[in-house]
Amino acid sequence: MSGRLIREGHSGTGPGSITPDGCAVELYARLSAGNEPDVIEAAVPAGASILELGCGAGRVTHPLVERGFAVTAVDESARMLDHIEGARTVRSPIESLDLGDERFDVVLLASFLVHTSDHRVREGLLRTCRRYVKDGGVVLLQREGADYHTDLPREREDRAAGCTIRIVSAEPLGDGVSEVRAEYVFEDARWTQTFRSRALSVEQFEACLEAAGLAVDRYLTDDGVWVLARPK
Question: Would strands 190-198 and 214-219 be described as parallel, antiparallel, or unpaired?
C-alpha cells in the first residue's frame, strides 16, 4: 500500500492543530498516561525493544522511555511527533509502515485502534503488528470494554491532567459501526472528537487476530481491555 486508506467520519474541534482523524495535538500532549505504562511494563521483559504504533504526542511513549524501554514511535502526524522526546520517531501511516527487516520484542497497538470501522484498515494494522514482531516476541493490544457503546453518556476524571473526559454518544450507523462523540474539558480549553468505531465481540476480535497470524495468549486486565498476543 502506498498510504493510509481513507477513514470517513472522523473530526475534531478545539484549540490548535487537529489531525485528519480528529485528534487534537495539544489535547493529546496534555492527557496523562494513567495505568497503561504499568500494564505494559508488567507484561514484557525489562529493556525490551518496543514498536509503538500510533504514538500520538507521547502520552505512553515518555513513561516507557523513562522506564528503560527502547521505543520506536510511529505516527502519521508530524505535529504529534514534534512532542516526542527520548525515542526514535518514524512518520508513517501504520498500514504502510516500512522498516525493512527490523523486528521488535514488543509491538504495541493501543488507543482502541483495532476497532476501526473499516475492515481493510484493521487488516492493515494487524498485518503490520505481525510483520514487525519477533518470532519470540509479543503484541500488546488495547480493545474496547464490553459497555463502550452503551450506558451513555458517561465520564471520568483525568486528575493528573486536570481534565474531564466524557463519552457523550455512540450513534449506530449499521453493520456494527457507531459514530462516537467524546468531549475533553479543561479549565482553560475544551476539545471534541468524533470517530467511527466497530464493536468486536471477544470471538470476533480473536478471529481478526487469527487471520493476521496472531493468537491471543492472555487478557492482561480483568476488564479484557489489554490483551497479549503472540505470532503463530
Answer: unpaired
CA dist 110 and 60 (Å) reads 9
List Cβ neighbours of 98 (8 Å cut-off, separation of 6 or more). 92
Q: Is the pTM of this model over 0.85?
A: yes
Q: Which class for 100: exposed (0-12), middle (13-18), buried (19 or more C-beta within 10 A)?
A: exposed
Q: Cell for 43?
A: 507484561
Task: Write down the domain spans for the chain.
Answer: 21-146+200-231
CA distances 232 to 5, 74, 170, Å, are 26, 24, 35
CATH 3.30.70.60 fits 21-146+200-231, yes or no: no
- Contact status, residue 141 vs residue 227, Cβ threshold 8 Å: yes
Per-residue pLDDT tens for 148-162?
Answer: 888 899 999 999 999
Q: What is the pLDDT of residues 18-52, one digit of tens each?
A: 998 899 999 999 999 999 999 999 999 999 999 99
- Helices and strands (H and E) in the chain: how many: 6, 12
